[in-house]
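Board notes (copied after class):
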Amino acid sequence: MSEVTELASEHEKLPLHVFAEKAYRDYSMYVVLDRALPHISDGLKPVQRRIVYAMRELSLGPNAKPKKSARTVGDVIGKYHPHGDAACYEAMVVMAQSFAYRYPLVDGHGNWGSPDDPKSFAAMRYTESKLAPYAQALLSELDQGTVDWADNFDGSMKEPVQLPARLPNILVNGTTGIAVGMATDIPPHNLRELVAACLHLLKNPEADTAALCEHLPAPDYPTGCEIITPPAELRKIYESGGGQLKARARWTREDGNIIVSHLPHQVSPARVLEQIAEQMRAKKLPLVEDLRDESDHDQPVRLVVVPRSNRVDAEALMAHLFATTDLEKSFRVNLNMVGVDGRPKVKNLPTILGEWLTWRENVLKRRLEHRLDKVKARLHILEGLLTAFLNIEEVIRIIRFEDEPKQALMDAFGLSDTQAEAILELKLRHLQKLEEMKIRGEQEELEAERKALEKRLGSRDSLQALLAEELEADGEAYGDERRCPIVERGAAQALSATEVVAAENITVVLSKAGWIRGAKGHGVDAANLSYRSGDGLLRTAEGRNNQTLILLGSQGRSYQLSAHNLPTARGQGEPVSGRLDLGDRERINDVLLGETEARYLLASDAGYGFIARLGELATRQRAGKACLTLPSGAEVLPATALRRPEEQLVAVASTAGRLLVFAAADLPELARGKGNKLIGLRGEERVAALTVLDAGTTLEVFSGKRSCKIKPADLESFRGNRGSRGKALPRGFQRVEAMQPVSAPAQEAETGA
């Protein structure tokens, strides 16, 4: 027992909650600082930095012959990054993909994935790689005393803490990452625009976000898509360090087809085609006849959308595709990074560029100081060598006869240990007279360089001038033109079900039993279609399948259906009650089809009515909506279309055999209600028939099997004020069953007879 107690006392004892809190905090900081977030200095995560450094150590420069990727991955995980080889290789692949990185760091040979499937790359034993030219902007100053070094994971060698980036790589290629409690989403930018913003900030340290956005207006993705977010919103993103921007595919017309040539970042062409094809299979996109993927080596993205006809509005079709597919995509921006102080923080654009420029200035200062130390050390050695040449005989004697020649040289000529060592390492062939002249020439050159370096280091303005000069030179060397045009556009809107279908003529047929169907074309002989036993034709309406279809119920309610998906006239249709929620006493007794602005006269047999626009009767509710208020015991009359209400006439006949004609303009235009009085009725009298006719048109009145035509001149005697009693019809037409205007050709034929 005493041994157990003694053993336990040798270990630290902590409460469980304290231990768990400390362990979780340590793990969180490791994930944040050593895995997920990039550093503002070189814009790299640790694994990316170690891959680039390991490739440099393997002499895999831009001009070298590439080596197997497995060689690089092996060095990375064996020397610097003790994690899985698959994760390390995947990080390397991303840095080599031109569609993922704006300026790739790795030049890959072999299968490194495709925009369709970025993870379709070959195994590392098959691919070869070397550093891309842009990587030199991160590595060229590594051996010039510019950055700190730290032990690797096992302390067997050193690795750089950061790379001495000559360009603000944190915004050049961008990155994404998920840490513990935080994430980062930094988009890529155009290198030359970024350099221009840095140069502006160097000249104007107090420049705000708006001034910097004049030079760096928006991200620049490698795929060359359109940035459609308004400039004001882009400025807000750069001011706050976070937000959302939208990118859209670019397309053109070619021989009537739509050619998509540039997709948003990280969007798969195959996925886009699949999304469009899925709509086509569901018959939700009949405007498109065919899809093709014509992408090749010369054109990495070429998607062909073939419209059904030349009448298809390409702009409207693409707006629909933008709204329903990945052709338009939103990107989250979160400028979260590890700062120079080692702390993660979301930073705005002036802070990022200002902090990087300060860091870069310090790196430049360290580089110059390192070079100055080298120059001074060399001058010190040259001074000793020159002393030796001026006293060459004595130097030779000391070396030949003294037991400790180094100390003897130091004592005889006042040399330092370094100078004496350099003299002793001289080769005999360097003891010629010409060598003395070379030393004096080298001394002059180094002395001039020393003065220039000291002058540069003594003036911050001179240091910043050199920084600006190098930035501009690197921007020209590695930069290119902007790929993503900035075009402010409104949000894409998907087409409605009626807009998306190809417009075709249709005749809607409604039976007495409430069965509905759609027959293609106009002039259909609806009465001779096939009906169920005991059923027959009630109403028809001609129009197009993308127009508004309204059904009127016997209780004064309106309902809406889609004309394009009605059952065909080859069958007997389907009951309206299957698509609508009709009341117990409700039955459909009229069908209207037309544009939303089309106007109809709605009336009840109680003698009241009004004009309504078809769009006002539309509703998405299966139960419909109230439109015509019916007095007690009244019934709905068939609706009548009006083409020009300001010029047309309304003819109303009552069951008492009276006819009233008045101007349609006398009726109000309402969305719902009872309406105004059409004709004066008495007792049990009702409206028997109602129609609309043009001025100067003959009116035909039907009573049983008899009919008579009232010519325009005679029709004037029936004109009166709306709501009046009207005038009695001729004997034999006291029981009017229907009225209709006679068409112009019929009138001409009658006049000729």
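Comment from the instructor: Residues 127 and 209 are 43 Å apart (CA to CA). The first strand starts at residue 67 and ends at 68.
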